[in-house]
Amino acid sequence: MMEWHLQKFMKSLPLSQLQTHHSLQRVAVVATDLDGTLTHQGKFTPDLLQALAALAAASIAVVIVTGRSGGWVSGLVSYLPVVGAIAENGGIFYPSNGTPVLLTAIADLKRHRQQLAAAFAHLLTEFPHLRETEDNAFRVTDWTFEVAGLTSDHLQRLRSLCAQMGWGFTFSTVHCHIKPYPQDKAGALMQVLGDRFPDYSSDRVVTVGDSPNDESLFDNTLFPLSVGVANIAEYGDILTHHPAYVTDLPESEGFCELVRAILAAKLP
């Protein structure tokens, strides 16, 4: 299986080579996607919860960086051993203790939602079967609809239509997002790191993801230590930025594989 992954990711290395090229002993922050990265078939597993607890016990901060809605994420951070979560692909940061921080400058939130609704209505004229996501009412900065049933040609056309209207577009394993054009996970994470961990250099942060809306987290000019869980290979031919390393295992099993490597490197 790994041979196939490397064919898709000519610039990516197996996770087993990570310690050779980077000192995992210095890792202090793990910034990770959620769906398809922390989940297994859409669910949290006991092994995943144990891995998060082990990182916390080792004083390694975990920041979730997800496309999920602000309303959904605001509750999640109260139950997981993380320092906080960035929601809506970079729109808002929810600390585990504290006040949410809007990361995208929006002068009038009500008007912003109206404009997003109008953009979605325009997409419906060409794609009448698009289905708005159930959590859309709990979003602040973006607008989402289901990715299921859309082909790669559909997704490219939707991206083009959004750009014509002045909006950004991205998608994950679960949702498509109409978003403010510059809003992405990397920019938001840089803001949060600068605020929460100003003394940490980039080699102390590992970013983790599995789908196209994680691509900015694989930009090695910002994050030299990035990891894709094995299922990222599905999108290898459409990514501009590839993760530096790829796990052998998919989804949460791949994340746990990475956690084991980090913790092993920190043993005396």
Helix content: 25-40%
Number of helices: 8
What is the molecular shape?
globular
Determine the structural class based on helices, strands and strand pairing.
alpha/beta
Helix and strand layout, with pairings?
Elements: H1 2-8, E1 13-14, H2 18-21, E2 29-32, H3 46-57, E3 61-65, H4 70-76, E4 84-87, E5 92-95, E6 101-102, H5 109-126, E7 143-146, H6 152-164, E8 167-171, E9 175-180, H7 185-196, E10 205-209, E11 226-228, E12 245-246, H8 251-265
Parallel strand pairs: 1-12, 2-3, 2-10, 3-4, 10-11, 11-12
Antiparallel strand pairs: 4-5, 5-6, 7-9, 8-9
Helix pairs in contact: 3-8
Describe this entry's structure for a reader.
A hairpin with a 4-residue loop joins β4 (84-87) and β5 (92-95). The chain has helices at 2-8, 18-21, 46-57, 70-76, 109-126, 152-164, 185-196, 251-265; strands at residues 13-14, 29-32, 61-65, 84-87, 92-95, 101-102, 143-146, 167-171, 175-180, 205-209, 226-228, 245-246. The chain is 33% helix and 17% strand. Residues 1-7 have low confidence and may be disordered. It is α/β, with parallel strands linked by helices and 268 residues long. A 9-stranded mixed β-sheet has the order 1-12-11-10-2-3-4-5-6, sandwiched between helices. Strands 7-9-8 form a 3-stranded antiparallel β-sheet, with helices on one face.
